[in-house]
Amino acid sequence: FQQFSDTGSSRKEHVKITSEPKPGFLERLSETSAGMLIGLVTFLLAFYLLFTNEGRALRTAKSLDEGLSLVVPLDSIHSISQQNEGRLVHLAGALSTSKPLFDPSYGLSIQAVKLKRKVEMYQWVEYEDSKEYEENGEIKKETKYSYDTEWKSEVVNSRNFDREIGHKNPSAMAVESFTAVSPNVQVGSFVLSKGLVDKIDDFKQLSLSHLEDPHADVTRGGDYFYHSDNPRRPEVGDLRVSFFYAGLSGDDPRLGSADKVTVIARQRGDQLIPYHTKSGDVLEILYPGDLSAEEVFQKEHESNTMKTWALRAAGWFSMFVGISLMTRIFYTLVDWFPVVRELVSVGLKAFAVCVASSLSLLTISAGWLFYRPLWALLLGLLSIVPILVARSRVPPKKQQ
Fold first, then answer.
1. What is the pairing mode between strands 260-268 and 108-110?
2. Helices 338-371 and 373-392 sit at what angle, rounded to 10 degrees?
3. Are residues 126 and 150 in contact, defined by beta-carbon separation less than 8 angstroms?
4. Confidence grade of residue 4 (pLDDT, cut at 50, 70, 90)
5. Residue 266, SS3?
6. Which PANTHER family match (predicted)?
7. Which residues sit opposite 221 in a β-bridge?
């Protein structure tokens, strides 16, 4: 059955209680069996993730070392030398674009690599907080639903609300968000590839204080354009529009000088394109600011290390979840005995932590053996040294 109760006259919150018979032993066993299958898949994926991550990390590190040994710093970004054709080059300079980016609907233009229009709509948002408990042999679930109005950049589908009446949102926005990208981005005389342009993503909000209201039904307030009769008291369905830019590519009296970037890529004519290393990776690097080649590759090594450890942690967690799901059947078997059930639960969690940790370390070690056999051989030889030293110190037996 369902029980509803409203709190307050605004009808912004209500509680629903649902109940169902407590599942029998066979039903719980069936659910546990399905979980075991999911756990097995998760467990096996963890091995794949941990093992291949070591190869990826090594390949990336080798590619970065190769790139650092081959990179050629350019003497000038305003002249193209044929001697560097096909080579990995390093250059730094200010961004430039051929034409400014426009948004004619709001009378706005800027000389930048990217211009983003962000549209938000004032909408109802549903929050829920649930708790389960057992009563009279039934499993009851008490869910508290609360509603509030917020600015959201995505349409919130109110049809999925527990109670849509009084909390209905429009199904679409009258104005859409979009991002305009300059078709031609250069550093000096060199044209950046699409991959390099994609890396220019440090967006900053654009001040609208110098602009007038573009239409009679649009009001500027702060750094927003409001499609609202009263921006201070918006209603559901009202819109507000803000703008962001990335890669300032011309000197602007309000925003300052053009942004500088550092690029490492392959030179092909006046194009900067991806460089394929012998290790099988691709080097197409862009950082904001003026950096040396050594600083760029150091940052890339640090990024590779962080990614390696993040994937190792993800692999361990995946293995932990997989083991927990596969061993949950033991918890189900003693579910009728509360004291034993809690002890088994703690034991299973400790078991999952220990086994996941051990197997993760073994898998990572296997990855080292597979991808770094010379290092593994060296470590093996080093492990023999203490034994040899100990044997050499044993005095020879006296002749009888």
1. unpaired
2. 90
3. no
4. very low
5. strand
6. PTHR13416, TRANSMEMBRANE PROTEIN 43
7. 224
